[in-house]
Amino acid sequence: MEKAKGENGFDYAAFRQEAVARLLGGDKELTGKDGVLAPLLKDLLDAALSGELQVHVEEHRPNRRNGSKAKQVKTPHGPVEIQMPRDRDGSFEPKLIAKRQTTLGEGLDNRILSLYSKGMSYADIQQHLEELYGLELSTGQLSAITDKVLPLVEAWRTRPLEAVYAFVWLDAVHFKVRQDGKVVSKAAYNVLGVDLHGKKDLLGIYIGDSESARFWLSVLTDLQNRGVKDLLICSIDNLMGFGDAIETAFPETDVQLCLVHQVRNSLRYVATKDYKEVTAELKLIYQAPNLSGAEQKLADFAAKWEKKYPLVVDSWRRNWLRLTRFFEYPAPIRKVVYTTNTVEGFHRQIRCVTKSKGAFSSETALLKVLYLTTQRIMEKWTMPLANWALTVQQLSILFGDRVRPHLKV
Fold first, then answer.
1. pLDDT of 22 higher than 60
2. Quick one: how far is CA 19 from the chain centroid?
3. Cβ proximity of 245 and 231 under 8 Å
4. Are the CB atoms for 201 and 264 separated by under 8 Å?
């Protein structure tokens, strides 16, 4: 029986047989300088390019073949030296491997982007590619490959959003970035939301010089420009002016201050010997079954500690409305919104990737890593969230017409 051949005359059956024979003969390595696939891939590429040229010269008579020129191409299976066929009048433009192309296909690019998204530096990636595949890529080449995500980043950051989000957590995480010859601190403002269908999504990443309520207001304005009309419940830390910024942009939004942050900030003014006792009594406030119980626990705490720690008591009283907003909700919703743990957990996942970075080479480099890492993290999120059918029923009761018109029933 005649062996199957491609349109370019390449014998694919023989290709497979040779690969199997080499493996059975003891060639265990598939990729790299001495791997099985590199020489076989060379045969395939040479035949395919030859077939491309043959079609070209037949369509452009009296043009004809004019020899070939050796060219090294970097592939995911190692460097391959191929023969680039030429035609007499120089009109041949190969599609498989362009004249100035030095890497083959998207596979290698995707592999480099995957390594970059896992926190590997360009130096680490260079070493990895050299050791495993025998590839030598410069920092400039690697940068050009990772820059391919920038149009995707821009499209993602400007994409339209849902009109209403049930829960939104807003928080910033800080990184060191090289700028104008020195290392500076940059804040990455992250907005994590859950829409009315239970889908969790990172709505945006915004890079600023430092965390401030003013910058957060610009973030919220951008969300509006991208189609957001309403945020039901926002969980935030107690950055000065942050809650006011949210209520300026979305006047009907319930703002819940993170109670873990409140306790943590309170302990800054407490003597070490009182840490354990004060922490336990502050927990009694927000673990009360209802608002009146919490008010009584705060009164008990103030009676005992106000003379010694007036700043702590004053902070709780001043922020009381936003600290206790969660008491208005059923228990399942309370557990979701009374802290910013959801977005902080997301930040911990990012830190696992970026912790080895001393400083990013630029703000753009930081944004590329954050985008790639975020996309990988979001792939593992379960949709919709657990028990969402019950949650959305509770939200429709609590928020009425702010929810019901947006549900598909």
1. no
2. 39
3. no
4. no
